[in-house]
Amino acid sequence: MRRPISNSEPRPWQVGTGLILGIETSCDETAAAVVRRGTTVLSNIVSSQAAMHAAYGGVVPELASREHLRHIVPVVREALAVARVDFADLDAIAVTEGPGLAGALLVGILYAKALAFAIDRPLVAINHLEGHIHAVVMEARRQPDAALHFPVLALVVSGGHTHLYLAQGGIGNDVWTYTNVGRTVDDAAGEAFDKVAKLLGLGYPGGPWIDSLAVHGNSQAVPFHFHAIKAREGADAAIRFDFSFSGIKSAVARYVQAEGMLPEIGARRLAVAEFADARVAEAMTMHREALLLDGKTLDLLASFQAAVVGNLMRQTFAAAEHFGARSLLVCGGVAANRELRSRFVAEAERRGLPISFPSVSLSTDNAAMIAAAAWPRYQAGLVAPESMNAAPQLKLG
Ligand code: KG4
Ligand code: ZN
What we know:
binds 5'-O-[(R)-(carboxyoxy)(hydroxy)phosphoryl]adenosine, five-stranded mixed sheet, binds zinc ion, 12 strands, alpha/beta, globular
């Protein structure tokens, strides 16, 4: 059995290539990537189950685990092949410990443990939320003038999470520390996108659909009175900047009912099922009529998106000001949203606050971010114990 290694001891297993294989299976993407020194992505393979879950309008946990099991071996093989490396070249293996679906996480963890054992390499356990943040850090390491100044305020906004963290660290080899200063009290922002899309008979995941459609609507058409949670003191007397997104979802449902939109939504749901695998943009431009995308629906989507983005901005910039953040980092699947990006950038510029996003392809779940987050931890000798387990509710800070 390997005993814990202290920081000062040499690490006999170290190959010295700086290559880490990242593995991510926390939700509905089976992903593997090889990243050198937390900086250079040699491969980044993502096998998405979205088309399968689309039929149910959301992720079915049991099916997700089974799909991970089917795909994990070929996905890892492909990650190594694309990177042109062998198992023997790896310095370490990194895997998502949580948060996420228990059965889904277990597939990645069990595979990673077995692999680490077989090739005698250390295993590094990564918090998925820190992974999203490190998608930005990884890209910042490649740019000497990266706009990350500490403390960084990080908004992690995805299908399962809407969190604000105040983070301290560096973009070299520092292990960052986090303090949670805001979270959603009910639905995550991405969950609201997914539920509203489902409510309107659109495809899954809903975010990309609404992102593509909202530009064709009038964002002032439906005046949503967003339930903004006032900054308040948490249990430890620190001021918190929390979010709530279930209210706007219910408001959309009420609007749909009041405006008699249900029959066309039923017809749209059937039409969208035909395009389950089609890319959103394609479905949009080619099939707008077939999908019954009338002005009222487009206005509703535009108004919904604008309200969600507005609320994310209000809380985030208020927190940045309160905590004296020196830069802002926005990551997670919803950070792919075009309106969110442009409005956050405009407001950050207005305030003179540097802002960073991951590139769009690294915003949604991937394993490159997991390998990147593992680099400082690996350097610090923070190797996972052999008893490491799936942690579905794992917190960050
Ligand atoms: O980070 P992610 O891939 O998985 C989780 O950790 O949850 O985020 C997925 C979420 C989904 O809710 C999806 O609808 C949303 O991100 N999303 C978007 C966009 N692309 C993905 N939301 C709004 N606009 C987008 N372009
Ligand atoms: Zn995620």
